[in-house]
Design brief:
By secondary structure, the protein is α/β, with parallel strands linked by helices. The protein has four domains: about 140 residues, no CATH class; about 90 residues, Threonyl-tRNA Synthetase, Chain A, domain 2 (2-Layer Sandwich), CATH 3.30.980.40; about 270 residues, Rossmann fold (3-Layer(aba) Sandwich); about 80 residues, Arc Repressor Mutant, subunit A. It is built from 25 helices and 16 strands. The strands form three sheets. A nine-stranded mixed β-sheet has the order 7-6-14-13-12-8-11-10-9. The chain has a five-stranded mixed β-sheet with strand order 1-2-3-5-4. A two-stranded antiparallel sheet has the order 15-16. The longest helix is centred in the N-terminal third of the chain and has 38 residues.
Length: about 725
Amino acid sequence: MVKNKKTKNRKQNNSVKMNREAAALFFALAAFLSAYVFIIPNDKSGILGRAFSKVLDGIFGTASYILPFILLWYFVIHIRQSVEIRKRIDFIWSMLCMISSSILFSAIQYIFKSKVSVGGGWIGDKLYPFFKELFDIKLSFAVIVTITLIFIAKFLRVSIVLSIYNFLKELREGVANSKEIKIQNDIQKIGAQQKSGSDFFKQESIKPNIVSKQEREEKKKEEAVLQPVAKQQTVDSKDFEYKLPPVDLLKNDAASIFVTNKDDLLKRADLLRTTLADFDIIAEVKDIIPGPVVTRYDLVLAPGIRIQTVSSIVDNLSLAMRATSIRVVSIPEKAAVGIEVPNPSSIVVGLRGVLKSRSFENSRSLLTLALGKTTDGLGYVTNLASMPHLLIAGATGSGKSVGIHTIILSILYKARPDEVKFMLIDPKRVEMPIYKDIPHLYNPCVSAADADIIINPREAAAALKKLVAVMDERYTKFAKDAVRNIEDYNNKMTETGGEKEFYIVVIIDELADLMLVVQKEIEDSIQRLAQMARAVGIHLILATQRPSVNVITGIIKANFPARLSFQTTSKIDSRVILDMLGAESLMGKGDMLFLPSGEAKPVRLQGAFVSLKEAEKIISFINDQNFPRVYEPVTIETDGKGGFNVDKEKGSRDLIPALQLISERRRISQDLLKANFGGSARATNILSLLETEGFVTKPVGTNKWQIDFKRIEQYLSSIKPTESEK
């Protein structure tokens, strides 16, 4: 049934595509002919051409020359498959453009009189006097121009407000960058060298340099050129039209522009140097790198002073700088020590600014994650496919749930529903319900129509076991086609015209609850998936607010090299998640440490914030497209070790009452099952189960179910003794 439905939808979409292409060719021809009639002299355009030109010129005047451009725009919106067709609305706006242009040309003719040879035709001559009497000559001209621009913008589907905003935003960014460059040029040496300093600072005078955002971006571009381009991971599907969500659904990112105060930065740098000198630590500030939330002061220590000495007085530095927490990091590339100090007032980092960064836009991976911004204010983007799995931990209220929403939305901005599927497990039942209707949802235990957020720990254990079966099934399929991974398989399917495989991202938000109920089953499935699932396109993201050794066991940690830690309540928790200290010194509210796979030191990021309303807008945009949720459910049953089998339990619960209902009513239909069992999805599943078991059949070419009453009676009589014994 799923294949028939998919074939039917494919035929419908192909028909729609052909109709659009035919309409596009018609409008292209109409645009050419209308332009030909207006350009070529009347004696060479034929009777129809002269009549057409004369009628339009009499009605619209000079505005009739706009008609070829309108028809050309119709050609553009029909040839572009991603553009929505709005026949009536587009026709109305196009007519209003013609009418307002006619009035505008009449106004121009009246104001400039004999200097220009234009006219508005019958419409312009009739309507312009109304505007002239109402607004006078000059004001009426301004009003008509404004109305004409509005109509043209509506017809071309251009937002005037957004265009003005983007212009002002670029202008403001230019002013901000020029201020930062001026600050860099005017910077002076911080304080005089203390008498207790060594000769090291007398030989070479070090000036603090406030690194501008423009310089950081240019440096990042140069580094990006030297890095190899990631292999394209694209799974194209032309069966259904689907548009990725626009970034306009998100709020403007105020953190993209933050203006620093030179005097405040210099004062805080001098206070930091003075405080270190009080503890006999001689240092000079080399660079000051301001960010939206944290400012980093890069220090050059005098010879003989250890980094551990600076780390030992962190609490004293926090007290002197009036900061809640200060973090000390080493910067080998500069031979310096970085001290990260929270800003007096932080700026919220929005997801929109990271999504609009070049790193995210240029990333070809379907599993691109926009995590947030670095301490110097640059967008940080990574690839889940290369991790290949991610472990997330953080205390309550540290921003862990928002970080998970950011990860999900990042992928939704990159991938179609038939390219990436989400298997969401939420034992807390409060974080992920907003995603229950998206077409990206996946559950290997049930059909596509019944896929939902998994909240029961035992159902989660069964789903993970079936996902292991999916992994094994894909390995068998890839071996037959002699490919190594999902990228090679999809590339081969593109060449041969076969069906591609989609990526599966498993997100578990509160691993501790699952480990409490079904630890053995969960740990075994996670271990197998983490070790082998990468090649077949299955990736795991585990999150917990209790990063203890009982939850994040050694087996799990060994298979999750990529870690993401928000603020933890203790140093022990920081060691469990990161194998090092540092997470306990974070500020919370999205402040995080990200340890990429294969790296020795984590990167400090300010997580991108996305509100619930913004997430709901994106989900509504996706759901409004009515993209069908289609995938083949797993037919392989898991063994009894999981202690729970969703399909078997649901089937035995619904099959017997359904057979008894058929035996009593002597008929079967989806409406009958829906009235007695509730819900069209459940009725569809029962009907499919009855057909699979052979109790009902539907011959080809008919729309009526045939019932095998004899088989039903035999089945019901066989279970009665068992029920009586119970």
